[in-house]
Structures are given as C-alpha cells and as structure tokens.
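Schema walk-through. Below, the input block comes first and the output block second. Nothing else is stored per chain. Lengths vary across the set, and this one has 145 residues.
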Amino acid sequence: MHLICNDAVDRMHRDHDYLLDLIQRIKAVCDRGEGIDNCRDCPSGHRESCHSNIEQLVRTFVEATLKHNAVESVYMADNVPKAHRLAHNQAHQAIGEQLRAIRLVFSADGNCVLAIQGIDEVLHTLQAHFREFDQHLETFLNTPT
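--- output ---
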C-alpha cells in the first residue's frame, strides 16, 4: 500500500508541475505584457497566432486540470476522511468554475488578455489549493492505515 501511496504523491507532484508549466506557457504567449487591454490593439497577424496558441493551451490546461481533479478524487476515495474529501472536491469545483468562466469570456470575445488575467487568478487559486488541500492529501496518503 505504501508504494501505491508514494506513486500517488509522485503523480500529484508531476501533475502540479505540469499545470504550473502550462500556466507559464499561456502567460508567455502574449509578449505585449501590461501594454494592452485588448487583443484588438495588436496587429492582425500577431493576434491570430497569439489567439490560436492561447486557445489551444487554455484547452489543454482545462483538460489537464479536470483530469488531475478526477485522479485526486480517486486517491481520496478510500484514504481520506469524509470532511476533507468533501471540502477538497468543493475546492476542485471552484477551480472548475474559474476555468469555465475563462472559456466563456474567451469564446464570447476572444480577448486573450482577459484569458491570461483569468489564468493568473487560477494560478493563485491553485497555489492556495496545493497548500490547503493537496499537502493534507499527501499526509493522508502517507499515513499507514
């Protein structure tokens, strides 16, 4: 059982690293930085390339986050007290809502600047989630039963 738990914790760490890397890649696509409020301020050729890259990376990020949440839910099924499991899953739902809001705004007006700002908010939420929930999950997984 202990090896399985170690594998689970290792998988969680790899997933976290991947999610954080995706966030950095999304933020790095727009090289205009703080200088613009809307993609319409960029030349059309640059805007199309940027938009396509950000759209694909956001989609990949959403899928990876949902998959990670599902994997964590499986890890919690037998090893975690119900109160933590419920709170942890509610935190996953809150992250899912943030991601949904980004997709809705992005699909409505295609403004990558807003998508990047939303992703930045998700970054802060994920970092807090890692501290507040995933570290406790690791403790539960590493505690002999």
